[in-house]
Design brief:
InterPro entries: Aldolase_TIM, OMPdecase_type-2, OMPdeCOase_dom, RibuloseP-bd_barrel. The structure is a single chain. This protein has a domain of 215 residues: Aldolase class I (TIM Barrel). Helix content is 45%, strand content 18%. It has 12 helices and 12 strands. Helix 7 links the parallel strand 6 and strand 7. The protein is globular. The model has no long low-confidence stretch (mean pLDDT 97). The protein binds the ligand O=c1ccn([C@@H]2O[C@H](COP(=O)(O)O)[C@@H](O)[C@H]2O)c(=O)[nH]1. The ligand O=c1ccn([C@@H]2O[C@H](COP(=O)(O)O)[C@@H](O)[C@H]2O)c(=O)[nH]1 binds next to strand 12 and helix 11.
């Protein structure tokens, strides 16, 4: 089951870090993309090849330091089929390196359409009795805007294929409060979504005691995260907003339960493009080493903050 594998990876690696694989071609080092532009011109194929090479180097450098990777599908999808091919190959490579994969796809639609999303990203597609895996990652992010019935559609595949999902509860962007913080019948919308997640979490408990239905709860809103931690005690939090969006290790402590578990913290740009921090002595030629160093620093900063608050598991 996804959640048991995630907690196992966290404990083995002593790391609550997730690295976001959000390749932006403008930030991929010239030493990588230049070769593909020379070979294929400024084409979708060149970009897809550059992304894949870049991701593999990042994965090689962080695979023993992070609990999971989180490719954001938008950065691949924008390059059409070539981009999606790079997404699939990236996920396959990460899997070979023993990493769990959280596909940041933020899907959600009416029930039957959600089921198609679930087939694509968690389970299998059935072609007249012949089953095929298409994207098949370990866990995904989903959008709850269409209601609880649409979330239920993912549960079947979560249970059948041992997968997981993280439901958007409180997002990291500056405008997240516009809808999520509205008060309806005495409750914030994000609190209502948290209740939905908590109900679903009971149906998907792993042997570790946590559920394969988790929540996206942002590091940029630590006060709300503290309340939400109590509303969804069995759900793991996927926490974006660390690093490039301004949150620090102190901001994520309340995302964790007293047992020192309960959250994984994502950083994308801050890790994969760390080579740009030349003041730290990083270079574009050694962008993988720079990512590793930043991932290690992030892991240690989080562990230290948890330890200072009596919440470190190890
Ligand atoms: O509330 C949310 C939900 C998802 N994200 C995603 O996380 C990463 C953050 O990237 P950084 O470079 O570390 O800022 C990105 O894929 C977002 O789409 C989020 O930021 N906030």
């Amino acid at each position: 089951m996804f959640i048991d594998e995630l907690v196992k990876a966290i404990k083995e690696k002593r790391s609550n870090v997730v690295v976001g694989l959000d390749p932006r071609i403008e930030s991929i080092p010239e030493v990588v993309k230049g070769r593909y532009f020379n070979q294929y011109g400024k084409t979708l194929k060149a970009v897809a090849e550059a992304i894949l090479e870049f991701n593999k180097e990042i994965i090689d450098n962080v695979c023993d330091v992070v609990a999971a990777v989180k490719p954001q599908i938008a950065f691949y999808e924008q390059y059409g089929l070539e981009g999606l091919d790079a997404y699939i190959k990236t996920c396959k490579y990460a899997k070979e390196k023993g990493l769990l994969i959280i596909g940041d796809i933020k899907r959600g639609d009416i029930g039957t359409t959600s089921k198609a999303y679930a087939n694509a990203h968690l389970g299998n597609v059935d072609i007249e009795g012949v089953e095929h895996e298409t994207f098949a990652v370990d866990s995904i992010t989903v959008n709850p805007y269409l209601g609880g019935d649409t979330l239920e559609e993912f549960i079947e595949d979560i249970n059948e294929f041992g997968k997981g999902m993280f439901v958007l509860v409180k997002t990291s962007n500056p405008g997240s409060g516009q809808l999520q913080d509205l008060v309806v019948e005495g409750k914030r919308i994000y609190e209502v979504v948290a209740e939905m997640v908590d109900n679903l979490s009971q149906k998907t408990l792993g042997t570790c005691g946590y559920s394969s239905v988790g929540a996206v709860v942002a590091a940029t809103y630590p006060e709300q995260a503290k309340t939400l931690r109590k509303s969804m005690p069995k759900s793991y939090f996927l926490v974006p907003g660390y690093g490039a969006q301004g949150a620090s290790a102190d901001d994520i402590v309340d995302c964790f339960n007293e047992d020192g578990l309960g959250a994984v913290i994502n950083s994308s740009r801050g890790i994969i493009f760390a080579y740009k921090k030349s003041e730290k002595g990083y270079t574009q030629e050694k962008y993988g080493e720079a990512a590793r160093k930043e991932a290690l620093d992030m892991r240690d900063a989080i562990n230290k903050a948890l330890e200072s608050n009596g919440k470190c598991y190890w």
